[in-house]
C-alpha cells in the first residue's frame, strides 16, 4: 500500500542518467531560490513598524530612513554573494567561505547557523502564509498551527518530486506574486501622487518624537533586516544551475536583489503614506491592499498570492538545506545518509529532516511569526558576518587585480551585518538566547561525528597483519516459539550450517513450557531444546542471558555462534500490523552483541 501511495505523491523513480535534466535555468531558479527573500517583504516592513509603534504612531516616519539603510545592506550583501558565487562555484556559500578562510570551527558555526536558519525559514514562511490566510478568513485563527503543519507537509511532498518539477509548480505563484506586488505598489504610488486615498494623518518626515532612541532605531533596523534573509541561498545552491553555473547564478542574484529592493522600499512608502499600523488579525500588507483596492477581487488576489509565496518561500530552505547538509556530510561532519539521492534525484533525507525540524519549531512557537523572527534573523546574520569576514581575508591574502573594490564591498557588508547581529543580541536577548545553547551543541555533534568517521576508517581497512580467528566449528542457536512449518524449515537450514544446533524457547507459563518441551522432544529428539521461564513476561531478557552463556561456551570451544530467527512473511505488507514484531526486537538487541552472527530464516505465506 505504501509503495503505490509513494509513487502517486512523488512520482516514478528517475534514472541517474537523467540528473542533467534536473538543473535550473534563471527564471525557474528565481522562483525556487528567491521565493524566501521576495516573500519576506510581506513581513519586513511590519517588523520595523512593530518596534516603532511601541513609541507611538508619530514614530512611523522613521521607517523611511531605516528602509534606506536596509537597502544599503542589501546592496552590499548582493555584491558580496555575487563574488562568493564566482569564487566558490561548487556551492556551500558561507560554510565553505568561512571554513577555507577563517577556520574549521568558523565554518561549522556558519554551517550550523544556516541549518537551523533553513528550518526557521520554513517555519517563518509557513507561519506568515498562515497569517495571510487568516487575515482574509479570520474564522481560521484557532486552527493556525494545524494549518501550518499541513502546509509544511504539502511543500515537502512538492520538493520530494524533484528540483525541476518543484520549480515548475512554484514558478506560477511566485510570478503571480511579483505581478500583484508591482500592480499594488505602482497603483498606490500613482494614487498618492494624484492626492487620492490618503485617509490617515501621518507625522511629517523629520518630526521630533519623544521616546525614540538610538537603541530603538537600531532594533527596528535589525528587525527590518529580516527582509534580507534568503539572499544567501543562491550562493549555497550554485550546483543546481544549468551551465554556465556561476554566470546564471550571479544573474539570478542580481534579478532577485533588484526586485526585493523595489518591493521593500515601495511597501514601506505605502505603509507610511497610508498611516498603516500593525494589527493582531490583519497584516500590514493586507491593510495596504485594502486601502488601495478595497475588499474587491484584487485585494483577495493579493492575499492569495501572498499566502502562496509565503508558504512556498519555504522552498528556498528545501532547496538549500539538503545541499548544505551534503557539503557538511562530504566533510564527515554529518551522517553519510545526507550524501544519498532519492528516487527523484533530490537529497530526500535532507528534505525530510528539514520538514520534521520545521514542524517541531511551529509547534514549539505556536506558529507565531513574531516569536520566530528574532531567532531567524540571528541565524542568518551569523553566517552573513562570517562569510563577509572570510572574503575579506581571502582578498587580503590573494590580492587579485582590482581586489580593493571587492574588499570594500565585503568590508561594508561585514560591518553592517556585525552591527545588526550585535543589536539583535543586545536588544532581543530574551528571545535569541537559545542560540547560545544549540550552537555549542551542534558544534560538539559535528566534531563527534567526524571523530567517529576518523576512528572507523582504520578499523575497516584491510592490512597484511590482520589476526582473524580460525573457527573450528559453528554453533547455531535457533529461537522457536512453537512447532510450525516456519521452525521446520529453519531447523533444516540450521543443521546445514551448524556443527551444533540448540533450540531455545521462552515460556511465560511453567505448565505450557513443560508441555512444549515434551512435544518438541517427540518431534525433534535429535535437537536439544532449552526452555527458559520468564518471570516478568519478557521474551528478550532471558533469551539474551542464554545467548551470553552460549557465546562464552562457543569462545571456549573456538566455535562461531550464529543465532537463527525464524520469521514468517505475510503476503500483503499491511498484514504485518496484525502480528507482533518480537523477531525484529530480538534482532535489534542481538546486533549490539559482539561476536554473534544474526540470521533470519524467512517463510513466505501464500495467502
From TrEMBL:
InterPro entries: AA/rel_permease1 (IPR002293), APC_K+_Transporter (IPR053153)
Keywords, in A-Z order: Membrane, Transmembrane, Transmembrane helix
Family matches, as Pfam families: AA_permease_2
GO terms for MF: transmembrane transporter activity
A GO-annotated cellular component: membrane
Domain of life: Bacteria
Annotated transmembrane regions: 48-77, 108-128, 140-160, 172-194, 214-241, 253-277, 297-326, 347-367, 373-395, 407-426, 432-447
Residue runs in coiled coils: none
Membrane-topology descriptor: Multi-pass membrane protein
Subcellular location: Membrane
Designated name of the protein: APC family amino acid-polyamine-organocation transporter
Organism name: Listeria grandensis FSL F6-0971
Amino acid at each position: 500500500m505504501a509503495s503505490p501511495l509513494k509513487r502517486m505523491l512523488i512520482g516514478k523513480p528517475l534514472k541517474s542518467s537523467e540528473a542533467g535534466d534536473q538543473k535550473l535555468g534563471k527564471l525557474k531558479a528565481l522562483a525556487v531560490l528567491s521565493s524566501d527573500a521576495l516573500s519576506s517583504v510581506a513581513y519586513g516592513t511590519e517588523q520595523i513598524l512593530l518596534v516603532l509603534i511601541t513609541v507611538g504612531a508619530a514614530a512611523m516616519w522613521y521607517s523611511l530612513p531605516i528602509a534606506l539603510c536596509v537597502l544599503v545592506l542589501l546592496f552590499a550583501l548582493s555584491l558580496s554573494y555575487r563574488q562568493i558565487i564566482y569564487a566558490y562555484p561548487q556551492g556551500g556559500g558561507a560554510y565553505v567561505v568561512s571554513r577555507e578562510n577563517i577556520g574549521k570551527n568558523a565554518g561549522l558555526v556558519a554551517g550550523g547557523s544556516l541549518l537551523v536558519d533553513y528550518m526557521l525559514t520554513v517555519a517563518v514562511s509557513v507561519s506568515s502564509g498562515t497569517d495571510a490566510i487568516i487575515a482574509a478568513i479570520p474564522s481560521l485563527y484557532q486552527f493556525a498551527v494545524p494549518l501550518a503543519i499541513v502546509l509544511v507537509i504539502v511543500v515537502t511532498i512538492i520538493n520530494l518530486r524533484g528540483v525541476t518539477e518543484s520549480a515548475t509548480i512554484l514558478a506560477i505563484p511566485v510570478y503571480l506574486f511579483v505581478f500583484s506586488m508591482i500592480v499594488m505598489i505602482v497603483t498606490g504610488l500613482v494614487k498618492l501622487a494624484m492626492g487620492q486615498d490618503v485617509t490617515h494623518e501621518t507625522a511629517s518626515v523629520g518630526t521630533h518624537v519623544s521616546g525614540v532612541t538610538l537603541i530603538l532605531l537600531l532594533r527596528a533596523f535589525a528587525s527590518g533586516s529580516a527582509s534580507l534573509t534568503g539572499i544567501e541561498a543562491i550562493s549555497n545552491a550554485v550546483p543546481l544551475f544549468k551551465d554556465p553555473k556561476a554566470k546564471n547564478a550571479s544573474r539570478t542574484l542580481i534579478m532577485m536583489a533588484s526586485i526585493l529592493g523595489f518591493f521593500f522600499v515601495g511597501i514601506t512608502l505605502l505603509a507610511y503614506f497610508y498611516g498603516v499600523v500593525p494589527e493582531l488579525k490583519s497584516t500590514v500588507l493586507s491593510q495596504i491592499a485594502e486601502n488601495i483596492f478595497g475588499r474587491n477581487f484584487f485585494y483577495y488576489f493579493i492575499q492569495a498570492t501572498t499566502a502562496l509565496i509565503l508558504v512556498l518561500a519555504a522552498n528556498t530552505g528545501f532547496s538549500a538545506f539538503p545541499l548544505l547538509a551534503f557539503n557538511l556530510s562530504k566533510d564527515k561532519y554529518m551522517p553519510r545518509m545526507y550524501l544519498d539521492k532519492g528516487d527523484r534525484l533530490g537529497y530526500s533525507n535532507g528534505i525530510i529532516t528539514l520538514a520534521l525540524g520545521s514542524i517541531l519549531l511551529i509547534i514549539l512557537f505556536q506558529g507565531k511569526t513574531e516569536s520566530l523572527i528574532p531567532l531567524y534573523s540571528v541565524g542568518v546574520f551569523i553566517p552573513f558576518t562570517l562569510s563577509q569576514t572570510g572574503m575579506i581575508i581571502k582578498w587580503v591574502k590573494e590580492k587579485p587585480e582590482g581586489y580593493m573594490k571587492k574588499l570594500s564591498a565585503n568590508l561594508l557588508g561585514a560591518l553592517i551585518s556585525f552591527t545588526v547581529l550585535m543589536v539583535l543580541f543586545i536588544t532581543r536577548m530574551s528571545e535569541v538566547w537559545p542560540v547560545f545553547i544549540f550552537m555549542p551543541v551542534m558544534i560538539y555533534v559535528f566534531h563527534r561525528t567526524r571523530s567517529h568517521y576518523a576512528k572507523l576508517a582504520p578499523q575497516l581497512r584491510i592490512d597484511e597483519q590482520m589476526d582473524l580467528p580460525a573457527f573450528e566449528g559453528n554453533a547455531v542457536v535457533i529461537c522457536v516459539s512453537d512447532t510450525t512449518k516456519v521452525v521446520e524449515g529453519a531447523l533444516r537450514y540450521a543443521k546445514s550450517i551448524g556443527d551444533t544446533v540448540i533450540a531455545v524457547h521462552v515460556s511465560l507459563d511453567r505448565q505450557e513450557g513443560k508441555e512444549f518441551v515434551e512435544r518438541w522432544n517427540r518431534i525433534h529428539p535429535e535437537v536439544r531444546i532449552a526452555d527458559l521461564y520468564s518471570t516478568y513476561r519478557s521474551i528478550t531478557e532471558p533469551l539474551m542471558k542464554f545467548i551470553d552463556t552460549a557465546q562464552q561456551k562457543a569462545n571456549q570451544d573456538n566455535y562461531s555462534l550464529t543465532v537463527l530467527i525464524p520469521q514468517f512473511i505475510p503476503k500483503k505488507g499491511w498484514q504485518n500490523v496484525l502480528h507482533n514484531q518480537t523477531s525484529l526486537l530480538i534482532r535489534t538487541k542481538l546486533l549490539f552483541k559482539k561476536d554473534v552472527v544474526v540470521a533470519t530464516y524467512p517463510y513466505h505465506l501464500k495467502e
